[in-house]
Amino acid sequence: MQAYLDILNRAVADYSRGDRPVVQAPAASELQQILDLSLQQEGADLDVLEQAVQDYLHYNPDSAQADYFKLLYSGRNNAALLGDWITSLSNATMHTYQVGPVATLMELELIKNWNSLVGFNEGDGLMVSGGSQANLIGMMLARHKVCPEFKTRGADGRRLIAYVSDQAHYSAQKAVNVLGIGSDNLVAVATDDEGRMCPQALEAAIEESLAAGHQPFYISLTAGTTVVGAFDPVLECRAVADKYDLWLHIDGAWGAPVLFSEQSRHLLANSGLADSFAWDAHKLMNVPITAAVILVREAGLLKECFSGGGGEYLFHADENAAFNLGERSMQCGRRADSLKVWLSWKALGYKGFAAKIDHLQGLKSLCVSQIEQTDRLEMIAPAEYLNVVFRFKPEGIDDEQTLRRLNIAITKTMMRNGGAYVDYAQYKGRSGIRLILANDAAQAGNIERFLQACVTTGEQLVASGEY
Ligand SMILES: Cc1ncc(COP(=O)(O)O)c(C=O)c1O
Question: What is the CA(6)–ligand 1 centre distance, in A?
Answer without folding.
Answer: 36
